[in-house]
Write a structure and sequence with these properties.
Length: 197
Amino acid sequence: MFEEDTGTLLTVVVIYAGIVTVAFWLTMIIWTYRDMRARSRDGLAQLFVVVVVATLTLPGLLIYLFLRPRETLSEAYERSLEEEALLQEIEEKPSCPGCGQRVQTEWQACPNCHTRLKKPCVVCRRLLELSWNLCPHCAASQTGYASANTGSETDYNRSHPMPTSESRISLTRKDPEPQTGYNTDPLEFVDGDEYGV
């Protein structure tokens, strides 16, 4: 009777160990397939990895862990997005047309070669592109820019009062001159520049 109990207990232990082994084996195969699917779109590579792990079990899993791709597809996609964002940030930074150095968008002149980058509006004093003939902020015409730079700002403001709302509307109704996107004017240098003319 003791031998029958021992035989029954041994059978239960063997069956339990077999179930655990099969469950662990299937779990390794499923995990390997899911992991490889997250790292590669190649169906043949996914099938090959599953077959290796299914036939070699733990050694196959170790081989897969050593040889699998380093990053998942989502990690590779995020990394490519970060690289693209960095490249766009580098490309979007403006450069000086005189010396090619990187400049800030709010700079009026290049600190390296003293090339004028922007001009202030003759009325509201906000920075404008050199080719703009109309201030987009206050709708003031920029035709008096040269005289405003030669005289004092207060003298210019006395001779050119702030436009009224009617004159602003009439200014905005004018057809704007076509812009080519490139400044064709010669480079202008700030006073005191050793390179300037």
